[in-house]
Amino acid sequence: MTGSVPTVPSGIDNWPEFAGNTETLACPDCDLLQVVPELPPGGKASCARCGRTLATQAADPIERPLALSIAALLVLILANTAPLMGLSVVGQQASTTIAGGAWQMWLQGQELTAIVVAFCAVFAPAAYLLCTLAVLLAARRPPAARWVGELLRWAEAMQPWSMVEVMMLGILVALIKIAELATVEPDIGMYAVGVLMLLIPAIQSSFDPEAIWKRVTWADDGSPPADGAVQADGPLNLWSAP
Amino acid sequence: MTISALTAARAGLVSCGTCGLLAAPTSPAAPGHCPRCGARLAARRRGSVETTWALVIAAAICYVPANLLPVLGTTTLGSTEYDTIMGGVVFLFTSGSWPLALIVLIASVMVPLGKLLALAYLLITVQRGSVASNRERTRLYHLVVFIGRWSMLDVFVDTFTVALVQLSPLMSVQPGAGVVFFAAVVVLTMIAAESFDPRLIWDAGTETEPDVA
Ligand SMILES: [Zn+2]
Ligand SMILES: [Zn+2]
Questions:
Q1: Domain ranges of chain B
Q2: For residue B100, how far is its CA from the centre of ligand 1 (angstroms)?
Q3: What is the full per-residue pLDDT of chain B (213 aa) written as tens digits?
């Protein structure tokens, strides 16, 4: 679609009238206005100008991420309580958990690093999963209360800081480094982190924030979402003429 | 390149940064709040270029001690040996795990540097009003956002090494002063990437916002 100069879709000559109409979107990356017709389930629409995904139509935007986030929360509890790996050298034994790692950094005088590790490894994933779970539970019966939007904002803010997959690789590298010096064995916690590493992206790919926003009561009274606000949509580019 | 693209800014509309709703601002100077989610509206992230520059410069300053100071100290039978990040890479390489050495080298040394250069490049081209390769620059921006978290790898490696190897007097590992600078580089560049507004890439040459300051 490169090279096509976008034009105003026919029948639309007064843009401000479309403010508040969720079927007209501006691309978050390049600000291009685009009209979003209904997408089929599993459909996806990209910006005509910069290529960014503007909207998706998940086949099942509530129940599937809900089931996945319940599973992920259970695995998260296991990952945070079970030992990650154990070490033994000439009769001495040691093991560590995720929080134990951050705590040891704190004890060794690296308080700031300990806080960063605890935040990215424990707090952010937990907050992300809890907020997502609460949002999905509340969104099952629209219209959802305004706090749902607030929690959704929190979930999205926590997402980049939840570094489960980076931690998984870090644990593996540490394991291989230490294996040069002593006998180390992976423990339950490490497998739990591995499962979590798969579950979180699965939640993200089945979760559709736009589908949630459509179910949330508007901040301005008087503009609640249409009943059952499930009008499927996702943008398509009317802008790229053939 | 003649652009007749109709953007939200040109149409006098604002896309909500939180929920994505296309909203009509109260006025260009004071856009007001999103009717759907209640967030403050802004045509572009406020002070995007200045904030991003400040964070990039702060991260670049931290990058120096992050690489020069040791990140780990290994005490074996009374004598302590210190390792920088590059020392850790060399250790992995010589102990035969060159794929891991490569991963740590890329994640810890090249990615942070690449991020700083990429953000500086994006900021400079935006400030110069460049209209070339907008699509590529937008993609570069997304690469920076996507890849940023992976630099935290070495912080996790150090944390779990320290946590596990506490077998004094036989052998113990302590964190070095470099770790906190390294974590600071990652955190600062992540916030920098989030404060950059990719729409600025596309604003040049489109003569948008004629009345917006
Ligand atoms: Zn776009
Ligand atoms: Zn909003």
A1: 7-43, 44-208
A2: 37
A3: 444 578 888 888 899 988 888 888 888 788 888 888 888 898 888 899 999 999 999 999 999 999 999 999 988 887 888 989 888 888 888 887 888 889 889 988 999 999 999 999 999 999 998 888 999 999 999 999 999 899 999 999 999 999 988 887 778 899 999 999 999 999 999 999 999 999 999 988 665 444 443
Report the distance separating Cα B24 and Cα A215, nearest Å.
21
ipTM, 2 dp = 0.89
Which residues in chain A touch residue B159, judged by CB atoms under 8 angstroms apart? 101-102, 104-105, 113, 117, 170, 174
Task: Give CA–CA dist B164/A93, Å, rounded.
Answer: 10
Specify the pTM.
0.86
Ligand 2 centre distance from Cα of residue B75 (Å): 54
Distance CA B9, CA B208 (A): 6
Question: Distance from A4 to chain B by nearest Cα, in Å?
Answer: 10
A36 within a domain of the structure (yes/no): yes
Architecture per CATH, B44-208: Up-down Bundle (1.20)
Closest ligand to residue A28's CA = 1
**Residue B79 touches partner A, C-beta closer than 8 Å:** no
- Pairwise CB contact (< 8 Å): B36 & A166: no
**Per-window interface: B 48-67 vs A, CB < 8 A:** none
- A41 shares its domain with A21: yes
CATH of the domain at A156: 1.20.140
> Which domain, by its residues, includes A4?
1-57
- Contact present, A64 and A206 (Cβ < 8 Å): yes
A71/chain B closest Cα distance in angstroms: 24
Tell me how far CA of residue A124 lies from CA of A127, A160, A162, B163, in angstroms.
5, 9, 5, 21
Instruction: Tell me B40's DSSP state.
Output: B
Over residues B102-132, the pLDDT tens digits come to 988 998 899 999 999 999 999 999 999 888 8
Identify the burial level of A211 via C-beta atoms within 10 angstroms of its C-beta, where 0-12 means exposed, 13-18 middle and 19 or more buried. buried
CA of A183 to the centre of ligand 2 (A): 54
